[in-house]
Amino acid sequence: MKKSTFWLVSLVIWTSLMVPMPLSNAAVTGAAISAAEAAGTTATGPKASEKPPAPVQPDSTITSPSLKDAVQQWIQSISGQQGFQAWKQAEWTSQPLGPGTHGWIVLLQSQGSPVGYMVIHAADPNNPSKFRLTEYGRGSTPLFSMQTLYQSLVQLDLINSSYKTERLYVDPLHAVWKITDADNFYYIDAKTGEVLPLQTDSDLQESGGSSADEAYTRLEPGQSIGASLQLPEFDPYDRLPWVKNAPAAYESFAALRSDLERHKKLTYTAQLYNGKVTSPFAVTGYHQWSGEDAFLLLEQNGQRAIPYAAACKLGKLYP
Fold this sequence. Notes:
Blueprint: H1 2-17, H2 26-38, H3 65-78, E1 91-96, E2 103-110, E3 113-122, E4 131-138, H4 146-155, E5 164-171, E6 174-180, E7 185-189, H5 201-208, E8 225-230, H6 241-244, H7 253-261, E9 267-272, E10 277-289, E11 294-299, E12 303-307, H8 308-314, E13 316-318
Antiparallel strand pairs: 1-2, 2-3, 3-4, 4-12, 5-6, 6-7, 8-10, 9-10, 9-13, 10-11, 11-12
Helix pairs in contact: 2-4
Region (Disordered): 42-63
Keywords: Signal
Signal peptide: 1-26
């Protein structure tokens, strides 16, 4: 009798182990934490019994055929440039920028890894078929990266909290995540993940000195890059030129282009958020488009191409 009871109990236990169990969110959280650790951030994930909140889910908001065509044309033009070859086979998703901006962030991935981004705005809000390219960049940490946001939420100890996220874009150097929880607002740099010394949305708008409706370019689909230059990266903190030197004065992009083609090392520096943040960038080249729009290439956790007109207004170049 005892032997029969033993075998019966064993059968019940063995059978229970074969019942399929649902996958938990721990695998997803673990992957995100591993990525954060690889980036130098140690993240403590949610308890096994808790459901980790997703910061923001990708949202394919671009439904206009004309806008889809515009994205593909710009990808085709940019992917031929040095360093942007991964764009050729990239897939993309899009999310809207802040309310009233008539803009989108387009995130590109190749073989499951981020390879770049574009910011697109309506060229004319009253004409839904015309668009302009505001900025773009390459690298594994694009503007409004979900992974960068995740790391910032971990550092702020908000990952297990209830919170709301918004993308706010004023210009290429004033783009932030706005995080709202039960007690506080946080403004996080959309490229670096740095928590910014801002208190309200008005602080962001006033410090930007421009608005999302201000067109720094007229770069439409169908244009191509006619001239370009790629220079080596360098650490702008090695020489601190914005502390030691006076800014360079360029009367035109052609004059700047001449210096860059002689491989002159230049640092672009911007005093952001009413002087509360100093951001230096290594200048690593330029793209000049067929419509005469010029973009300065800056290094910031990956290469960013921002309109030369915006760079002139928002900062200074130092030799």
